[in-house]
Every structure is written in C-alpha cells, then in structure tokens.
C-alpha cells in the first residue's frame, strides 16, 4: 500500500499454553497502518492485540510473515534499531531521574549535545503540557502527569511511529477522557502514525481514524469507527462494539422471519437478499409508540426503565420472549413515563436503517 507506514503480511505467532497445547496469538494477519493515522487495536483479553503491537515494536518475533516500516523490512530488526517508540501501560519512568532526565535519556544515549538535548526536551514537555516541571521527580507527579512524561519521552526524538499499549488504563474516568482528547490532538500536531491498544470500546470510537477489531488472533473488521458501528462485519463485531439488538432468521419476501415466528421488514436495498441472516438494530434506532401504528414496529412488554442522565434505557421483551434494549433521549421522557406505567409499547424502526449480516448460506 503506497501510503502505508507499516505493512504486515501473513503475520503468525504461536505461544505454548500451560496445558501443553498451543495458542495462536496471531493467525495470518495482514494489516496496513497509514501515514499520519490513529489506528486502534481493539478486542477482548487474549485476542492478540498486544502481541500484534509488540511485533511491530520488535519485542515479539514472528514465527512467520513479514513486517515493513516505511518501506524497509523490519521482520528481524531488534527494537532499538526500529524507527518506533512505545508508551507502556506502567510508564516505566526512572524514579531517581528528574522529568528532564527521563525525557532526554534516549537522546543522551545517542550522543545528542546537551544544549540541543535541552531544547528538544523543553519542546516535548511544552507539547504535553508539562513546561516548567523539568526538575521534578516522578514521585512528585500525579498519575496523569507521569503519563505525559512517558509521552514526552516517546515523542522527543520524533519517531516515524508511536505505539501505545493501554497508556490511559490507570487513570480515573475524568482524567482519562481529557487525555483521550489531548492524545488525539497531539497525534494531529506531530503528524505521525499512532497504533493504540485498548479494550475500551468508547475510547476506540472517540480517538481512532480506523479500528481493527480482533478475535482469536484474527482481524474481524478494520474500518472507520462509524462504519464499524453502523455496518459491523459479523455478529461478534456488532455485539463487541456498542449494544446491539440482533435478530436471526431467514429472508422471505422482503422480511426476516425468525424461528419464533416474529418478522422484521427489510429496506428496499435488502429485498434481493436470500438465505439465513442476522439483522442489527441499535438501541437508539427504536422510537416509542403506543397507539395503533401502521409503521414497521415490534410490540413489546417493558420490564425495566433506567435513567442514565442523558436519557433512558428500556429493557423489553417481545411476544416471543426475545429481550431487547432501547435507548430514549431525555426529550422523550413523557413517552418513557407512559411505557413505564403501561408496561407495554410498540418499538418503531425504519426498515432502511437495518443492517443485515449474512448467516450460514445467506448472501447480500
């Protein structure tokens, strides 16, 4: 790929399990990281995202496949010779060194003159909002400030690529949110590629240009956040990214007929689909109705209503016993109150908004 800074082809890595078997951490991975891109590796524990990140950094050697960085083969190149820096989860700061010494350590090892080193360190600290704190020690800093020192150390030499292994996981929720925004702004300002590992779906959606969703060492889907949310490639992605109401069945005459006899009307673009399929309707794609309504909808019993500040979450059951989740904005509080009182409602949906994923024997 011409605009790729990183290219992985056929990457494989197998680890021995404690039981004497094997675990495929990376199973034939093909991945491009574009220039100036914020790419997030997302997935459950054990999916291979950290192994993939460490392979790019050179800390894990592949069993098969190749890694190229900026057009050069890096498959067997050790970490310290790759044009890459890594920010680890635990920051790994030297406690006996000042902030200035921590940030400038790699420059000192490379023989950069003291004056030039101070200038570069000062500029990096200003960039991460720590100007004037050069003489402090790590134990004199908050968790968020220590994380910024680790970032400054990683960017001071302006690498071609920055790898970040869950660097925000130790921060409290409020600070974590502000650091998400600052980290994305920093990436834009630096103009280099970031590869970011997280298990936090909201974090991935907030920060990424693209997200690679992994499961069992394989990439399930790689796309922009909105594309992954609106058009998940399979049921795993649909359930892992956000909350999904999924309906499995067979397509017949423009409708999805489920095993319990319930049906969903499909949009015109899906009329020619055939076979088994799974339809996805996100909670916010439903609206509440109570009268005789001729629009496409599902009659439900309301089991529970939860106030979540910006709106409400409703937990409902269809006549066939299928459990559904509905999100309603705060402006719909009157409808929500009626649904909570009546315990019955009709969930209206727009057939054109339904996303269909082919099942076994299905096609789109």
Question: How would you characterize this protein structure?
Answer:
The chain is elongated and about 80 Å long. The protein has 9 helices and 20 strands. With 364 residues, the chain is α+β, with helices and mostly antiparallel strands.
Keywords:
single chain, about 375 residues, alpha+beta, six-stranded mixed sheet, five-stranded antiparallel sheet, 9 helices, about 25% helix, elongated
Topology:
Blueprint: E1 4-16, E2 22-34, E3 38-42, H1 49-57, E4 64-69, E5 72-73, E6 84-87, H2 99-109, H3 114-127, H4 143-155, E7 161-165, H5 173-190, E8 193-198, H6 201-207, E9 210-215, E10 218-223, H7 225-230, H8 235-240, E11 245-252, E12 255-258, E13 263-265, E14 276-281, E15 287-289, E16 297-307, E17 311-318, E18 323-329, H9 333-342, E19 344-348, E20 355-358
Parallel strand pairs: 3-8, 3-9, 6-7, 7-8
Antiparallel strand pairs: 1-2, 1-4, 4-5, 9-10, 11-12, 11-14, 12-13, 14-20, 15-19, 16-17, 16-19, 17-18
Helix pairs in contact: 2-3, 2-4, 3-4
N-end to C-end Cα span: 28 Å
Pick out the low-confidence regions. Answer: none
Shape designation? elongated
Q: SSE order in H/E notation?
A: EEEHEEEHHHEHEHEEHHEEEEEEEEHEE
Kindly report the spatial arrangement of strands forming the biggest sheet.
6-7-8-3-9-10
Helix and strand content put the structural class at: alpha+beta
Mean of all residue-level pLDDT scores? 89
Strand content: 25-35%
- Tally of separate helices: 9
Give the number of DSSP strands.
Answer: 20
Q: Cα-atom Rg, whole angstroms?
A: 25 Å
Largest sheet entry: 6 strands, mixed
């Amino acid at each position: 790929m011409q605009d790729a800074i990183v290219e992985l082809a056929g990457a494989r890595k197998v680890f021995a399990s404690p039981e004497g078997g094997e675990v495929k951490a990376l199973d034939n991975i093909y991945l491009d990281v574009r220039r100036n891109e914020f790419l997030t590796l997302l997935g459950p524990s054990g999916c291979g995202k950290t192994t993939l990140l460490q392979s790019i950094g050179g800390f894990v050697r592949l069993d098969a496949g190749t890694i190229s960085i900026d057009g050069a083969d890096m498959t067997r190149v050790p970490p310290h010779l790759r044009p890459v820096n890594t920010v680890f989860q635990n920051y790994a700061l030297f406690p006996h060194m000042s902030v200035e010494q921590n940030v400038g350590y790699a420059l000192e090892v490379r023989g950069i003159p003291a004056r030039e080193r101070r200038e570069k360190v000062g500029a990096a600290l200003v960039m991460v909002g720590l100007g004037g704190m050069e003489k402090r020690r790590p134990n004199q800093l908050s968790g968020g400030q220590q994380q910024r020192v680790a970032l400054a150390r990683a960017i001071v030499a302006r690498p071609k690529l920055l790898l970040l292994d869950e660097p925000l996981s130790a921060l409290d929720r409020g600070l974590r949110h502000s650091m998400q925004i600052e980290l994305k702004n920093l990436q834009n300002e630096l103009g280099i590629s970031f590869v970011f590992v997280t298990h936090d779906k909201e974090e991935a959606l907030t920060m990424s240009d693209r997200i690679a969703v992994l499961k069992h060492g394989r990439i399930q889907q790689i796309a922009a956040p909105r594309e992954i949310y609106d058009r998940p490639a399979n049921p795993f992605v649909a359930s892992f990214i956000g909350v999904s109401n999924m309906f499995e069945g067979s397509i017949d005459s423009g409708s999805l007929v489920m095993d319990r006899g319930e049906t969903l009307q499909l949009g015109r673009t899906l009329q020619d689909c055939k076979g088994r399929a799974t339809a996805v309707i996100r909670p916010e794609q439903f609206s509440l109705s109570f009268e005789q309504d001729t629009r496409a909808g599902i009659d439900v019993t309301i089991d529970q209503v939860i106030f979540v500040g910006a709106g409400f979450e409703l937990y409902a059951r269809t006549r066939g016993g299928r459990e559904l989740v509905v999100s309603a904005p705060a402006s719909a509080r009157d409808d929500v109150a009626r649904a909570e009182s009546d315990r019955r409602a009709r969930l209206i949906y727009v057939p054109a908004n339904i996303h269909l994923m082919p099942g076994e024997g299905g096609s789109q």
